[in-house]
Each structure stands twice: as structure tokens, then as C-alpha cells.
Design brief:
The N and C termini lie far apart (33 Å). This protein has no helices and 10 strands. It is mainly β.
Length: 90
């Protein structure tokens, strides 16, 4: 079984999310991408869209407007120009 991915989503105002998760899907400028634990390192610019954080059966979504994603051996960090959590549908 794969380990957990350390994920941090940061905007200029605050740290929006920080935790260990199973998967993160994000909107890259060259296409959407997903990151799991032990992913190969890379860096990419982000386009406007939704970052989805998956942990077990739980999903959280965050609207982002620009920024960068950096995957390292330590995990994934997204530095977004703007980021806010999308309210779950009732």
C-alpha cells in the first residue's frame, strides 16, 4: 500500500490546507495532473481551476487562480495567487 502524500496549499494571505492525503489533482497550464505519494519531482505553473484533495473517501475542493505547483521528495506544495475552499453541495 502506498504511503500518504504531504500536501500544502498556500495563498499570499494564509496557509489554506496542510496535511497528509492520498492524492491531489490540480489544473496545470499544460493540462490537469494528479500527484500520489512518491511521485517524481517536477514543477509547473497552474491555470485557474479546481484543486481536488482526496483522502480515503473524503474529497475537498479548492478554487485556485494561478500560481505554481512544486513536487519534491518531501511532497507537494502549491503556491497559489488566490485560493479558497469550494463549499460542498448540499
Amino acid at each position: 500500500m502506498a504511503g500518504k502524500l504531504s500536501f500544502s496549499l498556500v495563498s499570499p494571505e494564509r496557509e489554506v490546507f496542510n496535511g497528509l492525503v492520498d492524492q491531489v489533482d490540480a489544473p496545470g497550464v499544460e493540462g490537469d495532473f494528479g500527484v500520489l505519494a512518491d511521485h517524481a519531482p517536477f514543477m509547473t505553473a497552474l491555470r485557474e481551476g479546481v484543486v481536488t484533495v482526496i483522502d480515503g473517501g473524503s474529497r475537498r475542493q479548492f478554487e485556485v487562480h494561478g500560481g505554481f505547483a512544486d513536487v519534491t521528495p518531501a511532497g507537494l506544495t502549491i503556491l497559489a495567487e488566490q485560493a479558497s475552499e469550494v463549499a460542498a453541495a448540499a
